[in-house]
Amino acid sequence: MMLSRTTDYREIITSAVCGKGNKYSQSTYTIRTANRPTTIGGCWVMNHTCEGTLAGDVVEVHGRFDVNVWYSYNGNSETAVAKDTVSYVEQIALVDLDPNCFQDGLEVSVKVLQQPNCLDATVVDAGAEILVRVELELSVEVIGRTKVCVLTCFPDGKKDAFDEESSFLEEESSDRLV
Q: Could you give the CA distance from residue 48 to residue 121 in angstroms, rounded to a whole number?
């Protein structure tokens, strides 16, 4: 037995991801030392912080981290650590940006997929400075209010028949088993 049904649509306003993007980058930073370095003993990056803001159809991520370079100087007879805090700005293009998302109250979420990591450190300019190459990968999401359209079905055209819903569902499932 097939029931006649009246269908209708409802619009639900909900929070959803309205746009997202990610970016892998490599950047080189110049670290100045108190002494003229001879060789590099090691380099590490720590204390990373960042936050994102929406700027049109991109998210600008402003971040900073500390770079520490252990180096030798004075003909490899002494060592020291050079410390510097560097800042960066990454622009991440958004894909799947929902044009129907309400523009008021948008939130930006930034996730760090790959923490800043030193790829290499090199003494340059006759020992006057150290170049540090750092990799980083970020993911962003824009979260906002949007409408979702949902199909609703009512048995026998009775929109007020919510108390009959359980019997309707039982009949519907038995029809599918046949």
A: 19
Q: Which of 178, 172, 142, 150 is nearest to 3 (CA)?
A: 172
Mean pLDDT (whole number) for 48-58? 94
Residues 132 and 120: their CA atoms lie apart, in Å, by 6
- For the chain, the domains span 5-177
Looking at this protein, which amino acid is placed at residue 87?
Answer: S
**Over the stretch 124-163, which tens digit does the pLDDT of each residue have?**
988 789 999 999 999 999 999 988 888 887 666 565 555 4
Beta bridge partner(s), residue 145: 15
Residue 56 in tokens: 């049109």
E strands in 33-165: 37-55, 58-73, 78-93, 107-124, 129-155
DSSP state of 165: H
Closest by CA position to 24, among listed 90, 121, 97, 86: 90
- Has residue 170 got a pLDDT over 60? no
Q: Which pLDDT does position 167 carry in this prediction?
A: 52
Q: Cα(55)–Cα(94) distance, rounded to whole angstroms?
A: 10
Q: Which two tokens stand for residue 38?
A: 């001879």
